[in-house]
Design brief:
The structure is a single chain. By secondary structure, the protein is of the alpha+beta class. The chain has two domains: 3-126, no CATH class; 144-242, Trna Endonuclease, Chain: A, domain 1, CATH 3.40.1350.10. The chain has helices at residues 3-16, 58-65, 69-82, 102-143, 184-198, 220-224, 236-242; strands at 18-22, 25-33, 39-47, 50-54, 86-87, 92-97, 149-156, 161-169, 174-180, 206-211, 228-229. The strands form two sheets. The chain has a six-stranded antiparallel β-sheet. Strands 7-8-9-10-11 form a five-stranded mixed β-sheet. Strand 2 and strand 3 form a beta hairpin. Helix 2 (58-65) packs parallel to helix 4, helix 3 packs across helix 4 (102-143) and helix 4 (102-143) packs across helix 7 (236-242).
Length: 243
């Protein structure tokens, strides 16, 4: 590696993680990111018995900003145990850290803080998805009062069996409904399911994608090539007409 490349590498390393003074307290800005896009920042304080390394409550604040303060405590405790650090209902930390163990402690605290916030976001997302499934099932019960509706039913496509949020058994063919949240992974998953089912024959099933936020859903036109698109907030009659 030449000297120029070495210089660039050092610049990149310094940008990825760097130290700064925050209100007279030394902090380290890590390359780890919370779901909201903010960096994990660690505080280091010297004590007579060593050092305290903490996220000074930034993980909890991130969780509260996304509306997850009520579930964060339990998740943060598990995260602290997983990374062999501590949690005191406010911050994730390690204490009495000797100078030679500061790097390891910073890695553990930073990872625990990020893990806790990531898991909180995931828990909130799953709760929202469950609430939205209940809404979908209520809509379908009203639209098809005399038809059997299976929740979380597996349906076998051309090559694999796929779980759909709802399968309505109509007289001539099944109608498959799948909630789609506005994230690439959710859209790609729905496309894979619908494509495999479509390969059985386009007329053998009714395929309905139900985006929870159509205006924010990526690749909506591509999804529309594999299934009918009906927004979750559409009137019940629209769902009835789709089948």
């Amino acid at each position: 590696m030449d000297h120029t490349a070495n210089s660039v590498a050092k610049e990149v390393a310094q940008a990825l993680s760097y130290a700064r003074d925050t209100n007279g307290v030394p902090t380290v800005v890590t390359p780890l990111l919370y779901p909201g896009g903010g960096r994990v920042v660690l505080r280091m304080e010297q004590t007579p018995d060593g050092y305290i390394v903490s996220d000074f409550g930034s993980g909890r604040r991130e969780a509260e900003l996304m509306g997850g303060g009520h579930v964060y405590n339990q998740i943060a405790r598990r995260a602290a145990e997983r990374f062999a650090v501590r949690y005191d209902s406010h911050m994730i930390f390690d204490l009495e850290v000797p100078r030679e163990a500061l790097v390891a402690a910073a890695i553990a605290v930073g990872n625990a803080s990020k893990f806790a916030v990531d898991a909180t976001a995931e828990a909130l997302s799953e709760k929202r998805a469950n609430d939205q499934r209940l809404i979908l099932w209520d809509i379908l019960k009203g639209a098809f009062p005399n038809k059997p509706i299976q929740r979380g039913e597996k349906f076998t496509g051309h090559t694999d069996a796929w779980e759909f949020d709802a399968v309505v058994r109509l007289n001539d063919r099944p109608a498959l409904f799948e909630l789609v949240t506005p994230y690439p992974a959710a859209v790609n998953s729905a496309i894979a399911k619908f494509l495999d089912v479509r390969d059985l024959g386009s007329e053998k099933t009714i395929r309905v994608a139900v985006p929870t936020a159509p205006e924010k859903t990526p690749h909506l036109s591509l999804l529309g090539r594999t299934a009918r698109i009906i927004s979750l907030d559409s009137p019940q009659e629209v769902f009835k007409l789709a089948a």
